[in-house]
Design a protein that fits this description.
Largest sheet of chain A: none
Oligomer: heterodimer
Strand order of the largest sheet of chain B: 1-2
Distance between the termini of chain A: 60 Å
Low-confidence stretches of chain B: none
Low-confidence stretches of chain A: none
Radius of gyration of chain B: 24 Å
Mean pLDDT of chain A: 89
Shape of chain A: globular
Number of strands of chain A: 0
Largest sheet of chain B: 2 strands, antiparallel
Largest interface: A-B, 112 and 143 residues
Helix content of chain B: over 70%
Number of helices of chain B: 14
Structural class of chain B: mainly alpha
Strand content of chain B: under 5%
Strand content of chain A: under 5%
Number of strands of chain B: 2
Shape of chain B: globular
Structural class of chain A: mainly alpha
Number of helices of chain A: 11
C-alpha cells in the first residue's frame, strides 16, 4: 500500500498546481523508497530510465528550423495565403488536419506530424488566419483556436495509430497476451481499432465544426 | 552505421549552443541558472550512454532542481513589422523548408532500409524515423539558408527563444517516462489491480467490462500513459474475469481496452508531451488549455468504447 503514496503525491501536486517537474521528482523518490530501494538505488533507476528515454527529447531538434522560418516570416506569409483563399474556413482547416493526421497515423506515419513540426508553425497559424478571414477575433478566441488545433493533432494521432499493425501499442498487446498464453495476430487487434477510429473522427470532427461555427457566429454578432 | 547515438550527439550540441548563447547574455538576471540547465541537458545527451546510472541520476536531479527553481524568460520575438517585411521578401519560398521536414521524414522512414554499406544497413533499422527527423532538420536548415534571407545566427537565437519559451517543460515528458519505470519496479501496478478486484463485486460480465474500461481510463489518467495501464488492468481484471470467468474475446477486450486508455490520455496533464508541451509551445496562458478542449471528446469516446466492448466482447 505504501508504494501508492507516489500516486497520491502526483494527484495532489497537479491539483495544487505545484511545479510538475518537482512533483514528479518527489513522487519518484517516495515511490522508490516505499518500494524498498535505497536512496542511491532510486537515483540509479531514475537516471537509467532518463538516459534510456532520451529519444523523447529528439523532437526539440526542429526548433531551430521553425525559429528560422518564423524569423523569415512564415506565419505572416501563411496568413496572407489563407486569407486570399476564400474557401478556407476555420472548421475546414481543423477538420482537414484531423483527417490528415488520423489517416497518416493509420498508415504508420504517426511521427510525420506533431505539435512542434506541424501545429506550431503551420496548422495553428492557418486556423487563426482562416478565422480572421471572416472578421477580427479576440485574444481568448485565438488561444482557443490554438488549443483546438493541438487537440486535432492528438485525437488524430491516438485513434489513427492503433489501426496500423506495427505500432508500439498493438505490439505491446500482442506481446502481453502471448506471455499469458494467448496467441493473437496484430491484424486482428488492429481491425478492432477501426470502429473507434471512425467514432473518434465523427465526434471530434463534429466538435471542431461546431467550434468553427461558434467563432463565426460571434464574429457576425460583433460586426 | 548511423544510430540513435549520433542523433543524441546532434541534440547535445544544440542544447550546448543554447547554454552558451544564454551564458553570454550579460543583461539577463537568471542567465547562469538557465545556462546550467541547458548545459546539463546537453551533457545528458552527449555523455548519457557512457555515464553510470548514478551519474545519469545525478544529472536528472540537477535538472529537476534547476528547472523547478525558475529559468530565464525567453528574449523578445522579432517585431511583427520586421517579420511582415521578411514575409513579403521571401514569399512562397518559405514553404519549401517547412514542408521539407515531413516529406523527408516520410522518405527516410520508407527508404533508409535500402541504403547499405556492404551488407550492413547504413541507418539503424530500429530507429529510422527519428534518424530521418534529424536528417530532415539539417536539410531544411540548409534549404532555409539557401532560399531565404535571414541572419546566419537565426537558427540558434530563434531556436533558443522557442526552447526557452518551453522552459522546464522540455524535460517533463522524459521525466514522466522515467517515473513510469520507477512505478513499475516498485510494483505499483500489482497493488492497484489487487485493490480494484477486492472492492468491486464481479458477478456479471458487464460489470467486469465496465471496471476494466474505467480502470484503463483512470490508471492512464494517473500514469499519463495507456501502455503502463494495460498490463496492470489486463492481468488484474481483463484476463481472469472478462476472458477467464465470463468467456470474453481477448482480442476485442485488449484492442478496445487500450483505446479506453487513449481516451484517458486526452484528459491528463501527466501525458505532458501531448497536452502540456503543446500548450506551452503555442503560448497558451492556461497550461491545461489543450486538455480542457479535449475532455468532451475523451469522455464521449470513452462511453462509446465501453458500450462497444460490452456489446461485442461476449458475442463470438
Amino acid at each position: 500500500m505504501l508504494v501508492l503514496s507516489g500516486i497520491v503525491i502526483v494527484i495532489l501536486g497537479f491539483a495544487l498546481r505545484l511545479n510538475p517537474l518537482a512533483v514528479v521528482g518527489i513522487a519518484g523518490l517516495v515511490t522508490g523508497l516505499a518500494g524498498g530501494s535505497s536512496l542511491r538505488g532510486v537515483i540509479e533507476t531514475f537516471g537509467h530510465a532518463f538516459a534510456e528515454n532520451r529519444y523523447v527529447g529528439i523532437v526539440w531538434l526542429v526548433l531551430p528550423v521553425i525559429g528560422l522560418l518564423e524569423r523569415a516570416g512564415l506565419r505572416e506569409r501563411l496568413q496572407a495565403v489563407i486569407i486570399a483563399l476564400q474557401a478556407v474556413t476555420l472548421a475546414r482547416v481543423l477538420v482537414s488536419y484531423l483527417l490528415l493526421r488520423q489517416v497518416s497515423a493509420a498508415l504508420g506515419l504517426n511521427a510525420l506530424f506533431g505539435h512542434a513540426q506541424m501545429v506550431r508553425p503551420l496548422i495553428a497559424p492557418m486556423a487563426e488566419a482562416a478565422a480572421e478571414g471572416s472578421g477580427p477575433i479576440s485574444n481568448a478566441t485565438r488561444m482557443e483556436i490554438r488549443a483546438y488545433a493541438a487537440s486535432a493533432d492528438n485525437v488524430g494521432n491516438f485513434f489513427g495509430e492503433d489501426v496500423f499493425v506495427a505500432i508500439g501499442s498493438v505490439l505491446l498487446m500482442k506481446g502481453f497476451l502471448q506471455q499469458n498464453g494467448i496467441v493473437v495476430t496484430p491484424l486482428a487487434l488492429a481491425r478492432w481499432a477501426i470502429p473507434t477510429a471512425i467514432l473518434a473522427f465523427a465526434i471530434h470532427g463534429a466538435r471542431l465544426a461546431l467550434f468553427g461555427r461558434r467563432v463565426q457566429r460571434a464574429q457576425a454578432q460583433n460586426a | 552505421m548511423i544510430t540513435l547515438e549520433h542523433v543524441y550527439i546532434l541534440a547535445g550540441l544544440m542544447f550546448a549552443a543554447f547554454a552558451v548563447g544564454r551564458a553570454r547574455d550579460r543583461a539577463h538576471p537568471r542567465r547562469w541558472r538557465s545556462a546550467a540547465f541547458w548545459g546539463t541537458y546537453a551533457l545528458s545527451f552527449l555523455a548519457g550512454s557512457h555515464l553510470s546510472d548514478l551519474a545519469n541520476g545525478i544529472l536528472l536531479s540537477v535538472l529537476i532542481v534547476l528547472g523547478a527553481s525558475g529559468l530565464a524568460r525567453p528574449d523578445d520575438a522579432t517585431p511583427p513589422t520586421e517579420r511582415l517585411l521578411a514575409a513579403l521578401r521571401n514569399g512562397n519560398r518559405l514553404f519549401v523548408p517547412a514542408l521539407a521536414i515531413p516529406a523527408l521524414v516520410l522518405l527516410g522512414t520508407l527508404f533508409f532500409k535500402y541504403l547499405r554499406v556492404g551488407t550492413a544497413p547504413l541507418v539503424d533499422p530500429a530507429h529510422t524515423t527519428l534518424i530521418a527527423l534529424a536528417f530532415a532538420v539539417l536539410i531544411a536548415l540548409l534549404l532555409g539558408y539557401m532560399l531565404l534571407r535571414v541572419p546566419w545566427s537565426a537558427p540558434l537565437t530563434e531556436g533558443r527563444r522557442l526552447m526557452e519559451a518551453v522552459g522546464w517543460a522540455a524535460i517533463l515528458p522524459q521525466t514522466l517516462a522515467s517515473l513510469g519505470a520507477l512505478f513499475a519496479s516498485a510494483g505499483v501496478g500489482t497493488v492497484v489491480g489487487g485493490l480494484l478486484t477486492q472492492v468491486i463485486p464481479m458477478t456479471h460480465g458487464a460489470t467486469a467490462v465496465a471496471t476494466y474500461a474505467l480502470g484503463m481510463l483512470v490508471f492512464t489518467v494517473i500514469m499519463g500513459n495507456a501502455f503502463a495501464a494495460f498490463p496492470v488492468m489486463t492481468a488484474g481484471i481483463g484476463l481472469p474475469l472478462i476472458v477467464g470467468r465470463f468467456g470474453g474475446d481477448p482480442v476485442i477486450m485488449s484492442a478496445v481496452g487500450m483505446l479506453c486508455g487513449f481516451c484517458g490520455t486526452l484528459m491528463t496533464p501527466m501525458a505532458a508531451n501531448f497536452n502540456i508541451v503543446p500548450a506551452v509551445l503555442l503560448e497558451l496562458p492556461d497550461r491545461n488549455g489543450v486538455i480542457k478542449v479535449q475532455i468532451p471528446t475523451g469522455a464521449l469516446l470513452f462511453v462509446a468504447n465501453t458500450v462497444l466492448m460490452a456489446l461485442c466482447v461476449y458475442r463470438h
